[in-house]
Amino acid sequence: MTTDKIALVTGANRGLGRAAARALAARGVRVLITHRDDAAEAEKTVGEVRAAGGSADALRLDISDLASFPSFTSTLRERLERWSASRLDILVNNAGVGVFGPLENVTTDDFDTTMDVNVRGTFFLIQSLAPLLTGGGHIINVSSSLTRHTSPATSVYSASKAAVEALGRTLAVELGPRGIRVNSVAPGPTATDFNGGAMRDDAEMRRGLAGQTALGRVGEPEEIGDAIATLASDGLRWATAQRVEVSGGAFL
Ligand SMILES: NC(=O)c1ccc[n+]([C@@H]2O[C@H](COP(=O)([O-])OP(=O)(O)OC[C@H]3O[C@@H](n4cnc5c(N)ncnc54)[C@H](OP(=O)(O)O)[C@@H]3O)[C@@H](O)[C@H]2O)c1
Fold this sequence. Notes:
Elements: E1 6-9, H1 15-26, E2 30-35, H2 39-51, E3 56-60, H3 69-82, E4 88-93, H4 108-129, E5 133-142, H5 155-175, E6 181-187, H6 194-201, H7 203-210, H8 221-232, E7 243-246
Parallel strand pairs: 1-2, 1-4, 2-3, 4-5, 5-6, 6-7
Helix pairs in contact: 1-2, 1-8, 4-5, 6-7
The structure holds NADP nicotinamide-adenine-dinucleotide phosphate (NAP).
The site of NADP nicotinamide-adenine-dinucleotide phosphate has 28 residues, from helix 1 and helix 6.
């Protein structure tokens, strides 16, 4: 199945962003992905999409570098033109960082990095790219199951994702008159490089988290990618300002 839709997925050189890019492409969406430093891994995502018959291209973006947003937007417009397009249909704000630690260990740098990337970068990227989104367009912000349940040493990260959900709900109201939806996907613990790869590589942590999950295990990146692509599909076109948790029933 092909569509004429185009998605931009941030932080898709690995992890959940790569899985989301692949899942969107599998549903016929052309995908532009961003990477910060690792161009080779971004090209790997592009190669995987193309090998599966889809269309993909990669752009560099550091979402903590707001000064680069105007030139990023120009580059994005040029890439869209190569596809004879001038608009974006789906923006997946996936790029994010997890800086974890108990209250007494959190530094101002930890706090600022988390907020700069997860909140400030996400908000101002939406501001920069909203003019490119058309009626029927969709913004999906990647949040976390941690906005619903608690886990020690995650306060700043959880607060950053709560902010992402809150700004998404308000932007759903602001952008609704233009026919643009804004939703959040909230993954539970998922086996990626995130948090030093702990949810993938630390057997004890995996066992512990599995025991706190209704479905008895941590998630796989493809399960989050599929959720993002499903939320982006027309079948859910009447859903906006929603938080969709995909956690296998974590910490119920
Ligand atoms: N895995 C989980 O258990 C889990 C659970 C809930 C929510 N999430 C959220 O899901 C999203 C993706 O996480 P993941 O598991 O795929 O983690 P990951 O493997 O660590 O990937 C994070 C991605 O974000 C990018 N990124 C970080 N800072 C950036 C910046 N300043 N500018 C541009 N890109 C930046 C990374 O780029 P580089 O490769 O250059 O670092 C990478 O592509 C994040 O928002 C995370 O908070 C993850």
